[in-house]
Amino acid sequence: MAHAYTPGLRVTRHAVVHKQRRLPLKGQVLVEVGQAVRRDQVVARTELPGEVSILNLVNRLGVTPAELPGYMLKKEGEAVAAGEPLAETRPLLKWFKTTVESPVAGTVESISGVTGQVMIRQAPSPVEVHAYVDGKVVEVLAGEGVNVEVRGALVQGIFGVGGEYWGTVHLAVADPGEALERVGPECQGKIVVGGSLITSQAIRQAREAGAVGVIGGGIRDQDLRQLLGYDLGVAITGAEDLGLAVIATEGFGEIAMARKTFELLRACQGREASLCGATQIRAGVLRPEIIVPGEVGGGAPAPPHEAGLQVGDVVRLIRLPYFGRLGKVSALPAELQQMESETWVRALEVEFEDGARALVPRANVEAIEE
After folding, report:
1. What domains are defined for the chain?
2. Per-residue pLDDT reduced to its tens digit, 226-269
3. How far apart are CA 23 and CA 43, in angstroms?
4. Label partner for 62 (CA 20 to 30 A): which of 56, 105, 240, 318?
5. What is the DSSP annotation of 130-169?
6. By the 8 A CB rule, do 119 and 107 touch?
7. CA-CA distance, 168 to 115, in Å (whole number)?
8. 230 in helix, strand or coil?
């Protein structure tokens, strides 16, 4: 029998996470298989080729392309500093001499006797890849990067912005239904955990205080637009220049954080963690996340969902009229069920925290993997 439900978020105290750390092009891997690494440790390094500046010297010197090499003061492969003479004419009267200085520092890559152009390659830019998490190297990708394994607590969010950061988990509210409205200087270097709404004011205060991340139940679209200065599309996020990562665990709007998620983050209070706001909602789904290495008390890990949803599994409703609510599967009828729309679909019964029950299409829920 097929199992129709949307794979959901992972919110668990017992996760084994593999993070692949890869260079944008071939370089040098600095660690070995089996080596323990810290989140801020550089595991691979390379250099991106510098930008190329193209100079049309024949017009400035008043010579033909074929004559250009004879007027060059620098040969191919030689270094040149910004402002240093690059080429000059040699008239009989020195006050008629024309000198062209290099506008940038770099290396003369080519001198064309056909086009009369000179290409200067600027210095390469170093690129370093950090481990991102405290863990162990389980695989080395020769010349490309590594695969780091970390064991600990994992909380995935619905949506986030901002890149990779790390800091100390700090609860700023006492209840998952409480909005995060104020962030003080005590949050410097910390991952601030709110309850329901993350306001744009709180995000600005967190940035000014030097916090590395803000986590809450929901965020308003207009607040994101105000912070970023533009509308986000469906492409991947994570490259935003906010100075910190922002993660909504439940969705958009004022939504209380799921109590299970809040209690897990409460259990991690004061612990060092890594977080990333990068999100992708199209093919190749990428979830924002917070990873807390090490043991976090709270029982044994739950078995994986090998046979789809089971009675007792925790789910989140992802469509109206119960959007955002959490509950447990109380029944899985085998027969098709008729909905209010008069369509017949595969459905399940959900029991909410207040004891109320509802029959909903299986496509309207996502499993919360523990």
Report:
1. 11-16+150-293 (3.50.30), 52-121 (2.40.50), 314-367 (2.30.30)
2. 888 887 765 678 888 889 999 999 888 888 898 889 999 999 99
3. 10
4. 105
5. E--SSEEEEEEETTTEEEEEEEEEEEE-SEEES-EEEEEE
6. no
7. 58
8. coil
